[in-house]
């Protein structure tokens, strides 16, 4: 039985209803970690919490990630400042505290963001002061929210307290906006991502069978190729979003990656795994099942190393993270491999192409995932 | 590729450096047991005979099979991350040496098993390590240590370090058994490593790849340790990209050489030297042909499918236009001077394809510009036999000028594709791959026709690839924007000099040079402190060299002294409409280069007094 086979997932109006009831049920403080960035959805999670009753008991920590002076994201400094001003005003009017936590992404031409960001949650004692810990991953890059979520889970699990905080994840979905945010200057060489890195890169596993589980999404061919070069898989098990809002999404993705999957990768079509685009817990279930299946099948020969890569939406990414975390803690040889962009750019909407500085309105839908705490404890 | 290796290199430490895609990893992997065994098995196969013969000459293969145990270890993974790890009561250097030793041992055991074709874990007991260094690793141990014991030790160490690296919580001290000094390589001599009681192989070769991924401190530790290592019949080859080198190492290469037991091999420099006898072109032709054969598109003779020249109907129209335009211009400019009448008459008499005639007129135009520039008063008409219009350099310049003025395809032909590679295999494969896709598509669409790629399409592919390389510099390269300012200045300067009417440096200029004294100033840290502009310039040049955007030759001789020449990557030459030769370069002062790196190059209003090469 998997840890998240039963789960709590709400979205939109349902999420609002959940949070009103949840916050009405206690008087404790709420910690909300967000990313400071140009994404118009940056403050959506904070707004929801305030609307639902977190006024006067909310602490917001903004992760400020420094991508370096050459980052394409710097073109959007105006949007960042605008978002920040809005958040400051919001915090002030809601009686919330607002602090920043600086995370350097690079040191000596090495990526250090993943190791740095986990210090934003320094200890269990820090979390224990809160009834709810919410991590809003909307404006955070994967290299940061993966280790941050893993750290939150680890602290809570290690403490093993029955009165510990509830841990939640917010994901603001807006497919059109997500398409317009493009990662640029992809790392020439893919890397394994902390804290799921060193185990799969062990030298004593150099001859072990390697199974690669990429969650595929549109316009990620460059990343796919670079991660594949790093992982050098013996078997590839692609995960496709289905069901999805666009019923042809999976077909379109297979067409886009056709040559990489079938001509070069010799992937067997029966290997494809399908997981619901908007249910990260189903993604979790599918990946967990796949990894356990391959591990058991290959065990008579050798310990298999399974590497997961996320080239898909953030919602699906959270499912992949949960699966990896649980399998890793259970001792499986799993890891996460990614090829990350140096920075991001927000392309203007087509109808706004002539007025590129116009701040687009969001039509985002917030998904709220409860991933640790009271509802998962056995009575 | 093996031409750059000598038999002695199996017995000494070799440092192999290149830009990305130079072929380092392919070279190292050739010496792994699996590769050697396969080569030995297939020694009778036609395609393998040359390679087998060469490996026999080197001593890697004997009559009965592999003779050298190649232990391959990729240094790309994890080590640099150790610098970020906080473990109480220990430091990053100790973690690094412990982990590296463990991985060297694991790689050695794996290689030894492959060398002797062992598959069972029980076979590890047939391997024994003797000698004092073993006890330094395992602690109080007497007598030989089996491969299994070392496997368990190394595996345990690596698991502990990996757990520490992946840990989200503070790592407890004392959890990992650490040791400060690098010991692993000392264990690997044939006298120390036995299989069934005998030396595991005649020669042991530790192949450390991607050493540039280590931190500077880690790399220094490895290089220093290797350079002091003296174990009979054991050598270490270190392969790294130029990225790892410091500014002064890039500007003054070869400083680590000069010892009997250590060699430095810079792949691009080697291939540039071999370029004189077309060695690199032959290698690329070989690579291209093998890749084409392994594809299932029924295409052969890749080089022959890349013709040069002016062929298509558009170019023929342009050729007529060129002939008429250049002729008219020459007659208008020089027709009034009677001393040139014989030259002009000789040119009028030339017949043939329009392009060839246009080329003759354009070469004559260069010659006449030179004659006029000499400023000498002549009373006797110039004898056509006196002038150098048949000079191949002038004709090469004329070809370039015509191509730029009338949009003829210039970057076409396999030889030019080989030149455009800038001595880098990966760069060649990019261009060749683009060309091959079009050739394969043509074959598919029109199976009965030749799929040869027209010179115009080849030219377009090159220009597109050059533009892509140019556009990627800011994102691929540290301080990429500033590096590009400097490169643009060099490119624009080279273009300006090249296209001067008298083509003094025919076929053209593609780089600059600095005196060795100036080179030393750039590499000297005290100078850098005194003049921050020099420090910045040094870093930009060093960065460009690391990424093969500039190619250095520190031994160019002219005017009774040596110069450090810095030529543009050949693909960048295509970006700036320059030729692909290395002959033309112009000396520049450091102050000028500092100015260029900030302000770029501006064309002077008047023709300057240019220094002669």
Q: Could you explain how this protein is built, in words?
A:
The complex is a heterodimer of chains A (379) and B (613). By secondary structure, chain A is an alpha/beta fold. Chain A is 36% helix and 24% strand. Chain A has twelve helices and 18 strands. Chain A has helices at residues 12-24, 44-54, 77-94, 113-117, 124-128, 142-159, 175-180, 221-231, 249-256, 258-264, 280-298, 314-329, and strands at 8-11, 30-35, 58-66, 97-104, 106-107, 110-111, 132-136, 166-173, 181-186, 191-192, 210-215, 235-236, 239-241, 273-275, 305-310, 334-338, 341-346, 365-372. In chain A, strand 3, helix 3 and strand 4 form a beta-alpha-beta unit. Chain B has 23 helices and 15 strands. In chain B, the strands form four sheets. A five-stranded parallel beta sheet of chain B has the order 4-9-10-1-11. In chain B, strands 6-5-7-8 form a four-stranded antiparallel beta sheet. A four-stranded mixed beta sheet of chain B has the order 13-14-12-15. In chain B, strand 9, helix 7 and strand 10 (234-241) form a beta-alpha-beta unit. The chains are: A alpha/beta (379), B alpha/beta (613). At the A-B interface, helix 6 of A face helix 4, helix 6 and helix 17 of B.
């Amino acid at each position: 039985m998997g840890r998240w086979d039963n789960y709590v997932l709400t979205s939109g109006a349902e999420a609002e209803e959940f949070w009103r009831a949840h916050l009405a049920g206690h008087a404790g403080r709420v910690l909300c970690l967000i990313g400071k960035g140009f994404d118009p959805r940056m403050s959506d999670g904070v707004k929801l919490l305030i609307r639902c009753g977190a006024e006067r008991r909310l602490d917001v920590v903004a992760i400020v990630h420094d991508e370096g002076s050459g980052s394409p994201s710097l073109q959007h400094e105006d949007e960042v400042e605008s978002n920040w001003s809005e958040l400051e005003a919001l915090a002030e009017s809601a009686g919330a505290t607002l602090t920043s936590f600086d995370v350097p992404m690079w040191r000596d031409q090495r990526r250090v963001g993943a190791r740095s960001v986990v210090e934003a949650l320094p200890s269990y004692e820090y979390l224990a002061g809160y009834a709810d810990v919410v991590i809003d991953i909307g404006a955070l890059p994967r290299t940061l929210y993966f280790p941050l979520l893993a750290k939150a889970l680890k602290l809570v699990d290690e403490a093993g307290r029955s009165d510990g905080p509830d841990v939640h994840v917010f994901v603001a979905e807006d497919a059109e906006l997500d398409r317009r945010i493009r990662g640029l200057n992809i790392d020439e060489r893919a890397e394994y991502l902390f804290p799921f890195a060193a185990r799969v890169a062990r030298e004593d596993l150099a001859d072990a069978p390697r199974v690669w589980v990429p969650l595929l999404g549109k316009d990620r061919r460059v990343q796919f190729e670079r991660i594949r070069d790093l992982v050098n898989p013996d078997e590839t098990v692609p995960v496709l979003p289905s069901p999805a809002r666009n019923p042809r999404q999976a077909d379109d993705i297979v067409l886009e990656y056709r040559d990489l999957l079938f001509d070069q990768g010799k992937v067997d079509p029966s290997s494809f795994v399908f997981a619901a685009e908007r249910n990260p817990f189903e993604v979790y279930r599918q990946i967990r099942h796949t990894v356990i299946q391959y591990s058991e099948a290959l065990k008579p020969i050798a310990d298999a190393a399974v590497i997961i890569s996320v080239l898909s939406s953030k919602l699906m990414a959270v499912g992949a993270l949960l699966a990896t975390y649980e399998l890793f803690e259970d001792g499986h040889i799993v890891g996460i491999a990614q090829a990350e962009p140096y920075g991001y750019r927000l392309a203007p909407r087509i109808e706004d192409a002539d007025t590129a500085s116009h701040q687009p309105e969001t039509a985002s839908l917030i998904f709220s995932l409860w991933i640790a705490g009271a509802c998962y404890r056995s009575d | 590729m093996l031409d750059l290796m000598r038999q002695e290199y199996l017995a000494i430490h070799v440092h192999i450096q290149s830009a990305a895609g130079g072929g380092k990893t392919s070279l190292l992997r050739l010496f792994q047991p699996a590769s050697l065994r396969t080569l030995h098995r297939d020694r009778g196969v036609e395609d393998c005979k040359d390679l087998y013969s060469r490996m026999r000459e080197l001593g890697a293969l004997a009559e009965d099979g592999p003779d050298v145990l190649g232990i391959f270890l990729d240094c790309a993974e994890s080590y640099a991350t150790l610098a970020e790890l906080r473990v109480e009561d220990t430091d990053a250097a100790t973690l690094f040496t412990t982990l590296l030793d463990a991985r060297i041992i694991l790689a050695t055991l794996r290689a030894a098993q492959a060398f002797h074709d062992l598959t069972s874990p029980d076979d590890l007991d047939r391997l024994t390590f003797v000698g004092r260094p073993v006890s330094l690793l395992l602690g109080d141990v007497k007598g030989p240590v089996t491969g299994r014991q070392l496997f368990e030790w190394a595996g345990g160490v690596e698991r502990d370090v990996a757990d520490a690296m992946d840990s989200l919580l503070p790592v407890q001290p004392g959890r990992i058994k650490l040791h400060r000094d690098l010991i692993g390589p000392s264990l690997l001599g044939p006298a120390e490593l036995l299989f069934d009681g005998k030396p595991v192989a005649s020669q042991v070769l530790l192949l450390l790849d991607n050493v540039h991924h280590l931190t500077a401190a880690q790399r220094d530790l490895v290089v220093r340790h290797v350079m002091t290592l003296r174990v009979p019949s054991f050598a270490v080859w270190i392969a790294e990209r130029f990225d790892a080198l410091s500014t002064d190492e890039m500007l003054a290469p070869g400083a680590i050489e000069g010892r009997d037991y250590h060699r430095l091999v810079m792949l691009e420099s080697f291939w540039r030297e071999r370029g004189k006898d077309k060695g690199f072109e032959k290698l690329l032709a070989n690579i291209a042909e093998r890749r084409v054969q392994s594809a299932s598109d029924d295409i052969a003779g890749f080089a022959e499918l890349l013709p040069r020249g002016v062929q298509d109907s558009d170019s023929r129209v342009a050729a007529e236009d060129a002939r008429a335009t250049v002729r008219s211009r020459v007659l208008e400019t020089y027709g009034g001077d009677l001393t040139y009448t014989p030259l002009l008459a000789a040119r009028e008499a030339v017949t043939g394809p329009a392009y060839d005639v246009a080329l003759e007129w354009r070469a004559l135009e260069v010659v006449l510009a030179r004659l006029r520039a000499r400023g000498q008063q002549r009373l006797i008409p110039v004898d056509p036999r006196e002038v150098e219009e048949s000079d191949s350099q002038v004709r090469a310049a004329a070809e370039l000028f015509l191509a730029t003025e009338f949009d003829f395809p210039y970057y076409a032909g396999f030889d030019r594709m080989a030149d455009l590679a800038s001595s880098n295999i990966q760069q060649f494969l990019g261009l060749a791959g683009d060309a091959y896709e079009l050739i394969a598509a043509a074959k598919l669409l029109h199976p009965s026709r030749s799929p040869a790629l027209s010179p115009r399409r080849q030219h377009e592919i090159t220009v597109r690839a050059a533009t892509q390389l140019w556009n990627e510099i800011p994102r691929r390269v540290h301080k990429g924007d500033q590096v590009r300012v400097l490169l643009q200045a060099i490119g624009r300067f080279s273009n300006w000099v090249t296209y001067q009417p008298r083509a003094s440096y025919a076929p053209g200029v593609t780089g600059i040079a600095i005196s060795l004294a100036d080179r030393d100033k750039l590499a000297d840290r005290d100078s850098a402190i005194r003049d921050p502009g020099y420090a910045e310039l040094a870093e930009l040049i060093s960065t460009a060299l690391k990424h093969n955007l500039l190619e250095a030759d520190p031994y160019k001789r002219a005017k009774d002294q040596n110069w450090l020449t810095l030529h543009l990557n050949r693909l960048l030459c295509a970006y700036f409409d320059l030729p692909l030769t290395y002959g033309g370069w112009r000396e520049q002062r450091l102050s000028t280069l500092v100015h260029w790196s900030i302000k770029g190059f501006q064309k002077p209003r008047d023709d300057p007094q240019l220094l002669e090469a």
